[in-house]
Amino acid sequence: MSLLTATDIYGGYGGADILKGAGLRVETDEIVVIVGPNGAGKSTMMKAIFGLLRVRTGQVLYQGDDITNAKPEQMVRRGIAYVPQEKNVFPSLTVEENLEMGAFLMSRDIKPRLEKVYAVFPKLRDRRRQQAGLMSGGERQMVAMGRALMIDPKLLMLDEPTAGLSPLLIDETFERIKEIQALGIGVLMVEQNAKQALAIAHRGYVLATGTNRHEDTGPNLLANREVAEMFLGG
Amino acid sequence: MDLLIDLVQLSIYGIVLGSILTLGAIGVSMIFGILRFAHFAHGDLMTIGAYVGLSFLVFTGLPIWWALPAGMIGAALTALLVDQAVYKHIRRTQPVILLISSFGMALVLRSLVQLIWGPNVYSYSGGIQRPWWFGEIAIVPNHVWILLAAVLIVAALHLFLTRTRMGKAMRAMSDNMDLALITGIPAERVIMLTWILGGALAAGAGVLLGMDSRLTPTMGWNILLPVFAAAILGGIGRPYGAIAGGMIIGMAMEISTLFLEPSYKPAVAFVIMVAVLIVRPQGIFKGTL
Amino acid sequence: DGLRIGALVPTTGDLQVYGETSLNGIRLAVDEINAAGGVLGENIRLRSGDTQTSPQAGVDAAQRLATIEGVHAFVGALASGVTIPVAQSVSRQEGLAQISGASTSPVITDLDDDDFLFRTVPSDAFQGVALAQIARDEGFESLAVLYINNDYGLGLAEAFSEAFEAQGGTIANSASYEPGQSSYRGELRRVGRGGTEGLVLIGYPENGQTIVRQALEGGFFERFVFTDGLRSPEMISAIGAEFMDGTIGSAPRALDDNPGAQHFRDAYREQHGEVPPQPFMDSAYDAVYLIALAAQRAGTTDRVAIRDNLRAVAGPPGERVYPGEWRRALELLEAGEEINYEGASGSVDFDENGDVPGTFAHWRVENGEIVDVRVFAPEE
Amino acid sequence: MIKIEHVSKAFGGIQAVDDVSFEVAEGSITGLIGPNGAGKSTLFNIVAGLIRPDSGRISLEGRDITGRRPHQLFHQGLVRTFQIPHEFSRMTVRENLMVVPAGQAGENLFKAWFRWGQVREQDSKVLERVDEVLDFLEISHVADELAGNLSGGQKKLLDLGRTMMTDARAVLLDEPGAGVNRTLLGKISEAIQRLNTERGYTFCLIEHDMDLISKLCDPVHVMANGALIASGPMSEIRQNEQVREAYLGGGASGRMGEQR
Amino acid sequence: MEFAGIAAYLVSFFTFVGIYAILALGLNMQWGFTGQFNIGIAGFFAVGAYTSAILTVPESPWHVGGFGHTFLIGVAGAVIASALLGLIIGWITARLRTDYLAIATIGIAETLRLVIANETWLTNGVRGMSRIERPYADFFQALGLTSAMGSLIVVTAFLVAVYFLVERARQSPWGRVLRAIRENEPAAEAAGKNIGRFRLEAFVVGSAIMGLGGALYAHYFGFLSPEAFLPLYGTFLVWVMLIAGGSGNNKGALLGAVVIWIIWSGSEFVMSATLPDSWSSQSGPLRVLLIGVLLQVILITRPQGLLPEKAPKTVPTGRSRESD
Ligand SMILES: Nc1ncnc2c1ncn2[C@@H]1O[C@H](COP(=O)(O)OP(=O)(O)OP(=O)(O)O)[C@@H](O)[C@H]1O
Ligand SMILES: Nc1ncnc2c1ncn2[C@@H]1O[C@H](COP(=O)(O)OP(=O)(O)OP(=O)(O)O)[C@@H](O)[C@H]1O
Ligand SMILES: CC(C)C[C@H](N)C(=O)O
Ligand SMILES: [Mg+2]
Ligand SMILES: [Mg+2]
């Protein structure tokens, strides 16, 4: 049984469908990457899976359960964490409060979780009292990831987690993502730093105009000339 | 000397008025903080609270203080109902839509009060209280109780906001509703709680106002602008600032009668407010919860 | 096509309370007349419009009544702030008579209304004089005045102060208040300075209760002088008879020997139950009678003809006709006689401005009851 | 062209920019890199007039512009993009660009009222230019879409498009590449180069994509903890130990754009 | 209910709606285009009304005036006075955030109302000003029209002119900049726009239009008192009209004025026709209840207003666009 399968998804923002039959699959302890041009529908796909957007037709299965169009709260309870592409921190809350909010649904003591996140992103510990809205673009990205990790997710969905990060941090982030995956967490991410992302991915999807263009293992996609030229910047 | 006595006496009156304004302003401020709109039906929630308290007293014959919890429950339920029936459906549109809607809601609530209780003037208890005299300063017993009740209500709210995660969740919601949803914060529950608290606070203000003056269908609407002024002065969205805002507005209004034709009294609140806004556009108090 | 009367009363807004009772008075008159044969052989049809105590809504309602409903005359409005714009932009323009039973503003006296605006209550200018006389009769030397900041409050306060001082009294302090406040202590402290014998409070019950209560609780005043706006049993029960006893005041009121007032009270009780304390319902009732009589005398429902006949039926010369005597009035007019209507609220003889002189009650609270000490016409 | 002299700025306890001085030479494409939170955007905001520095001086072509408002700087030929896209959400993409050109007669209300012909004529010229830019950025298909509905990357492109609508002399780009598809980014970097060589625009850009930086920028300045720690051509910068440690790291991302 | 009656009512109805539509257009300039949250409309409305009244009424022993100017001078004075007021208020509140501006403006409007009520020498205070003449009544009479029809014609003429100016402003680059400012100030500033200037211009023009509405109101009603400028009728009604009609859209402002006034005034009609007599004392509150509920229905079902904002058409370029 796959951790997550989305099949034949159609849906959009009220007007015409943005997603036109896209689908994907994530296994437990697998890193899956979605790449594609701007406006292809990658973020839309993430939102559709997470229940933020009505899926018109198609099905999303999580650990065998149908979670199509379930409420976000349900998703979090089941162990799916999602970091959106934009506006992914609470600007007027401090860093630590942002993290606390991540674990809102967890009633148990959150101290150890906080420590875990601080271990992954030490910079956040130094800045715990700073308002997230006043942090630099890259720092916010860390807060957002940290917040998602607070629920000990089984599936982590990241929309462009490395956008705006320094090269050092990009590499580090991908390392972290590998570590996270090694803990048995499935990772589904959208990336424009596609080469590095595909390099660590087990599988990748190329999405264009709302449909799957290519689907293969990471290395194979990287090796594919057409994919490289059209979507990865040569 | 006379002036000093005048000032002290008027300040005492100002504090009483300020307590009432404060309770209203905290609610306005909280609702603004979470839902990002100025709630124009807040005054009429006060009215509802006051009248529910009145009916409760009439039906049960309990002593006057029971109006407070009864009114608070009544107004909290009303607020909740209004939110579920109306605001909920337009929450995702612009704040101004909510504002206009709340204005319409103010009309609805007021006319309901009139339909249920009629247009007449009521009071909680007949008769008057003789003041205690401290030298030349007079203090009416009720005023002590009003101040005490206001302090207790504010303290209870403070405990609630700081001892529970809900307080932070409320702020998170006010920052970014979508992200709050994604994070798993039960947004609807937080909003409902906000209305319950806001409604209860409004009722607190309404009942105390009723005790200090009388009950009319427009009592809340009439006090709404000073309440807003207090909320603004404290920095809207900052419940604790509202306390200071309420007190300042209350005192300024009473003391102004020393120098100004009293029919300008309501303007005092506005002039202070506008002046503060111009000098300090973020309200007088910086800092958050 | 029978006579249509448009009633302009607020059923919402600040003066709603007065609106309801006024409308009751109007209904009573219409029912009485219809039961006794109607006007020109047909029943009067009553149309009402809610002025919402606002000029905008009042004018719109009046306009609708005048045009779509085609009424032949108005009764109303209540607040002077509504009555005047209605007169200026509807009654005068559409050419129909308007009789207010409640608007007491002195401005109305010499308003440019092309003689279409009348009223069956005396101007506040008269009541102020009456009140001064009452206060002097009660032996007050020095008084403070606190009045609501609208034309009613201002008009009365000015007339009263002038007359009171002319009669040798002193006005120690005088201030106006804005309605709708929750505390009036600052105001009270201001007018309470310098030891006066009592407070002349001019306003409506809504704020009046608060003010009196706060005045007593703060130890500002012990004795009060009221006007018609605060003549209300509610006021006494809310504050307590022990504190209100001895309070005096004025109110427009028909002379006691007027049988019309008695008839009105009885008839009102029969139709609507207990007679409420609010003033202005008897004057509204009279307005209907006057319009009906004028139409009957004119022999037509033509708007201007009704207006032209109002003075003739309202004042001397002529046979006196009282409320409830519609049949008799019909007969007299049939016989070509002049009549002079003597109303429930007084003699209602219109002068050249459409005003009535009016008589006033000097009332006092005794053992928690409002008692009329005497009814008199104020001396100039 | 732009001269930054001893600029400092602190927010509360954080020294976001610490005595930074450097110059952006006329006609250059100057790179600004450094770890997250190094103070790059803050420095941009200071230069662009959105934040006042605590101390220091900025000059543009020799004139002191410290503390000038952004719109004043715009008219002196200095434009900028934002790291987090600032689109006009409830306006169409096309309108977003039409807003930008300076000196439109129709921005004067009286001309808009009484010289409509002139206004329309100018508008259609503006529109032509808009369509060129849209085509170039490959977002013509969303020209009539509300900007708020664009995808994250599309918004960045739109932001860039706004700078292309001006007759700027100096352009500050804050991470034009973040979230932009690499194939398109390649084209964008060509465009920057073209604007630079053909139209003489001076660029100063912040970017974390080393590919882009190495391809376009010379010189490159490196900030860390608010201070300038290195300057020079990218090939030199790469050798700088401090930069490697604080910023580039040893991984694939840091090595991108190295001569193969 | 004959035809002539209905026609006569419609004359007054549309005069009324016309005046409110002008106010709504002024508000649209401030809120719809620019996002300036002015809930002190009553203040500008009142200043316009009183200015025109003071300029045109004959001499009176109670207050200043007796200038006896003509209608057009009154209107011009009203526009200038309210524009000046807008300039001052716009200038001192320039730095205020949306919601703060809102509360500041309502505070200023209420203060102005109190000034009008208390400064008797200027406005005759609570007693109000009367003897304000309808525009060109004699002239229209000569044409065989009533003064009400004359007023309607004058109001309509002004409405058309205002609509034209406001709509053109909206379509122009000026309006585009305003909308850009509304959406994102820093970006507009980075695009070289002097935000302060544009905002102030819009605020002043909007205020001037409201002042014009006030002048027309004064001349139609013939009587002014502070009661007419309470927030309910002076401000909120205008907001409700604009929001229900569709803010940002000038046609929406017009439609909103019509629809809301129909609801406001027509609801009474419905009430009196359907309610039994014994309910009559409840009819007032019931009517207000109905209005409130209808407003909620509009807002819930059409949150963008009856006519949502649409981007103005851009000029065709002539260049044929290949489809992609
Ligand atoms: N308004 C502010 N108040 C307080 N601190 C701020 C403010 N703006 C920025 N900072 C802090 O200043 C530092 C520099 O921020 P800046 O945005 O300039 O970084 P940056 O170099 O652009 O980083 P990135 O590459 O991640 O965008 C950060 O630590 C940030 O948290
Ligand atoms: N809220 C929205 N309402 C309407 N249309 C939208 C909305 N958000 C996105 N779209 C449209 O949906 C399409 C796909 O957007 P999406 O955000 O999924 O792209 P993406 O693949 O994530 O691109 P990027 O890499 O630039 O983030 C785009 O054309 C965009 O204009
Ligand atoms: C109903 C009354 C209180 C009206 C008041 N006499 C007035 O003229 O405004
Ligand atoms: Mg995306
Ligand atoms: Mg940055």
TrEMBL record, chain A:
<protein>
    <submittedName>
        <fullName>Branched-chain amino acid transport system ATP-binding protein</fullName>
    </submittedName>
</protein>
<dbReference type="InterPro" id="IPR027417">
    <property type="entry name" value="P-loop_NTPase"/>
</dbReference>
<dbReference type="InterPro" id="IPR003593">
    <property type="entry name" value="AAA+_ATPase"/>
</dbReference>
<dbReference type="GO" id="GO:0015658">
    <property type="term" value="F:branched-chain amino acid transmembrane transporter activity"/>
</dbReference>
<keyword id="KW-0029">Amino-acid transport</keyword>
<dbReference type="GO" id="GO:0016887">
    <property type="term" value="F:ATP hydrolysis activity"/>
</dbReference>
<keyword id="KW-0547">Nucleotide-binding</keyword>
<dbReference type="InterPro" id="IPR052156">
    <property type="entry name" value="BCAA_Transport_ATP-bd_LivF"/>
</dbReference>
<comment type="similarity">
    <text>Belongs to the ABC transporter superfamily.</text>
</comment>
<keyword id="KW-0067">ATP-binding</keyword>
<dbReference type="Pfam" id="PF00005">
    <property type="entry name" value="ABC_tran"/>
</dbReference>
<feature type="domain" description="ABC transporter">
    <location>
        <begin position="4"/>
        <end position="234"/>
    </location>
</feature>
From TrEMBL, chain B:
<feature type="transmembrane region" description="Helical">
    <location>
        <begin position="266"/>
        <end position="285"/>
    </location>
</feature>
<dbReference type="GO" id="GO:0015190">
    <property type="term" value="F:L-leucine transmembrane transporter activity"/>
</dbReference>
<feature type="transmembrane region" description="Helical">
    <location>
        <begin position="190"/>
        <end position="209"/>
    </location>
</feature>
<feature type="transmembrane region" description="Helical">
    <location>
        <begin position="12"/>
        <end position="35"/>
    </location>
</feature>
<dbReference type="GO" id="GO:0005304">
    <property type="term" value="F:L-valine transmembrane transporter activity"/>
</dbReference>
<keyword id="KW-0997">Cell inner membrane</keyword>
<dbReference type="Pfam" id="PF02653">
    <property type="entry name" value="BPD_transp_2"/>
</dbReference>
<feature type="transmembrane region" description="Helical">
    <location>
        <begin position="47"/>
        <end position="66"/>
    </location>
</feature>
<keyword id="KW-0813">Transport</keyword>
<comment type="similarity">
    <text>Belongs to the binding-protein-dependent transport system permease family. LivHM subfamily.</text>
</comment>
<keyword id="KW-1003">Cell membrane</keyword>
<dbReference type="GO" id="GO:0015808">
    <property type="term" value="P:L-alanine transport"/>
</dbReference>
UniProtKB/TrEMBL annotation, chain D:
<dbReference type="InterPro" id="IPR003593">
    <property type="entry name" value="AAA+_ATPase"/>
</dbReference>
<dbReference type="GO" id="GO:0005524">
    <property type="term" value="F:ATP binding"/>
</dbReference>
<dbReference type="Pfam" id="PF00005">
    <property type="entry name" value="ABC_tran"/>
</dbReference>
<keyword id="KW-0813">Transport</keyword>
<dbReference type="InterPro" id="IPR017871">
    <property type="entry name" value="ABC_transporter-like_CS"/>
</dbReference>
<keyword id="KW-0067">ATP-binding</keyword>
<dbReference type="Pfam" id="PF12399">
    <property type="entry name" value="BCA_ABC_TP_C"/>
</dbReference>
<dbReference type="GO" id="GO:0016887">
    <property type="term" value="F:ATP hydrolysis activity"/>
</dbReference>
<dbReference type="InterPro" id="IPR027417">
    <property type="entry name" value="P-loop_NTPase"/>
</dbReference>
<dbReference type="InterPro" id="IPR003439">
    <property type="entry name" value="ABC_transporter-like_ATP-bd"/>
</dbReference>
<dbReference type="InterPro" id="IPR051120">
    <property type="entry name" value="ABC_AA/LPS_Transport"/>
</dbReference>
<dbReference type="GO" id="GO:0005886">
    <property type="term" value="C:plasma membrane"/>
</dbReference>
From TrEMBL, chain E:
<keyword id="KW-1133">Transmembrane helix</keyword>
<dbReference type="InterPro" id="IPR043428">
    <property type="entry name" value="LivM-like"/>
</dbReference>
<dbReference type="InterPro" id="IPR001851">
    <property type="entry name" value="ABC_transp_permease"/>
</dbReference>
<feature type="transmembrane region" description="Helical">
    <location>
        <begin position="228"/>
        <end position="246"/>
    </location>
</feature>
<dbReference type="GO" id="GO:0005886">
    <property type="term" value="C:plasma membrane"/>
</dbReference>
<feature type="transmembrane region" description="Helical">
    <location>
        <begin position="253"/>
        <end position="272"/>
    </location>
</feature>
<feature type="transmembrane region" description="Helical">
    <location>
        <begin position="70"/>
        <end position="93"/>
    </location>
</feature>
<feature type="transmembrane region" description="Helical">
    <location>
        <begin position="142"/>
        <end position="166"/>
    </location>
</feature>
<feature type="transmembrane region" description="Helical">
    <location>
        <begin position="39"/>
        <end position="58"/>
    </location>
</feature>
<dbReference type="GO" id="GO:0015658">
    <property type="term" value="F:branched-chain amino acid transmembrane transporter activity"/>
</dbReference>
<protein>
    <submittedName>
        <fullName>Branched-chain amino acid transport system permease protein</fullName>
    </submittedName>
</protein>
<keyword id="KW-0812">Transmembrane</keyword>
